[in-house]
Structure formats: structure tokens, C-alpha cells
């Protein structure tokens, strides 16, 4: 073995003895939009008022896990809700959503999943269909009295509402909102069982 090879072997041995210093984890600064934003700013970002958001949070609080932990840092139910709401309202990329609220992308994903499950747990409180003979008879009577339509207990229809802002707001997901006629729209389904009027939207 020549001297050059010996030196190369020594260099390799020296490299194996080097202790690499792990980069210290830097945690994002957690935000509190309820305090930091004005009422107008809050509504613009989340589409609801602060009071409306807190009312919904109070309804789903019991359905949420105690906390979404980020290395031992619990996230309040009210912030979990805003993280999920921002994503649902804007279709924002999860990394950007995390930056806005001071959490990681995996935390955004967990919040979204848990909040959606919690909201779905309330479905029986708000989504109701007449089941008993008395309820069915009452709905039929309501439709006949209000609209002169006999033997009807409910109505449902769908339509596409054009929205040119989708391309800008939805970003990479904008193509999901192009309907069969080739323009950007939101698919709206309206169901009416006399009262209240129910509306759901999607792409």
C-alpha cells in the first residue's frame, strides 16, 4: 500500500470520528388571531366573526381530543378551529396555513382532521328529516299551504355559481373548480324542508 492510500484511509477514519452537531429545533411563534386581529381583519381571514367562531368551538369542544401536541405544546380548541376553518374557507396550502398560525404542516393536517370529525359529530343536531307520520303529515301540510304543492315533504336542487376569483384564491387546486361547461364555479346544493333552508357547497 503506497503512502497516498494510507493517507486516504486515515482521512476516512477521521471522518467517521467526527460528531455531527444536530441543528437545534426552532419552534414557530404561536399566533392568537382572536387577540391580534381586528374584527374586520378576522372576518376577512376566516369568513366568520370572533363570536360566531367561539360559539361553534363551544359546541364541538367535547368532541375534540384534549390537545394537538407539538412537542408538548398544546393547541387550544379555538386555534385548532381557526386553522381548519382557514383551510376550508380558502383552500390554502397547509404550509402557508401553518406559517400564518405558528404551527407545523403536520399539525395543520391533524387539526383539519379532528375539527372536521368534531363538526360531523353534530350532524344529528342540524341535519334532520321528518320520520314519524306526524312529522311527514305536518311537512306535507306546510308545502300545500305555502306553495300549493300536495304530497311534498321536501325539495332539493343544484346549480353552478360562476366565480372568477377561484383561479386566484384556489391556486394549484383551481382546476378542480372547472365545471363540465368549462368555467370556474362553485357547485351549490339547496335543500328545503319548509324551514330552515339548507345549503351546501363544493367543487
TrEMBL record:
InterPro entries for this protein: HARBI1-like
Superkingdom: Eukaryota
PANTHER family (alphabetical): NUCLEASE HARBI1-LIKE PROTEIN (PTHR22930:SF250), PTHR22930
Full protein name: Nuclease HARBI1
Protein species of origin: Macrosiphum euphorbiae (potato aphid)
Lineage: Eukaryota, Metazoa, Ecdysozoa, Arthropoda, Hexapoda
Amino acid at each position: 500500500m503506497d503512502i497516498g492510500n494510507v493517507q486516504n484511509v486515515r482521512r476516512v477514519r477521521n471522518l467517521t470520528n467526527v460528531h455531527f452537531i444536530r441543528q437545534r429545533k426552532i419552534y414557530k411563534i404561536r399566533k392568537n388571531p382572536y387577540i391580534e386581529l381586528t374584527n374586520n381583519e378576522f372576518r376577512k381571514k376566516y369568513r366568520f366573526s370572533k363570536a360566531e367562531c367561539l360559539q361553534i368551538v363551544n359546541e364541538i369542544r367535547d368532541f375534540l381530543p384534549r390537545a394537538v401536541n407539538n412537542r408538548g405544546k398544546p393547541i387550544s380548541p379555538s386555534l385548532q378551529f381557526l386553522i381548519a376553518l382557514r383551510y376550508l374557507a380558502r383552500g390554502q396550502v397547509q404550509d402557508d396555513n401553518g406559517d400564518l398560525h405558528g404551527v407545523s404542516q403536520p399539525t395543520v393536517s391533524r387539526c383539519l382532521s379532528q375539527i372536521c370529525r368534531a363538526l360531523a359529530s353534530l350532524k344529528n343536531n342540524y341535519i334532520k328529516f321528518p320520520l314519524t307520520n306526524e312529522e311527514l303529515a305536518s311537512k306535507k301540510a306546510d308545502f300545500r299551504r305555502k306553495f300549493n304543492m300536495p304530497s311534498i315533504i321536501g325539495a332539493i336542487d343544484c346549480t353552478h355559481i360562476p366565480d372568477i376569483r377561484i383561479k386566484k384564491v384556489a391556486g394549484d387546486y383551481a382546476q378542480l373548480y372547472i365545471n363540465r361547461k368549462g368555467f370556474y364555479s362553485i357547485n351549490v346544493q339547496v335543500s328545503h324542508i319548509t324551514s330552515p333552508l339548507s345549503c351546501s357547497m363544493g367543487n
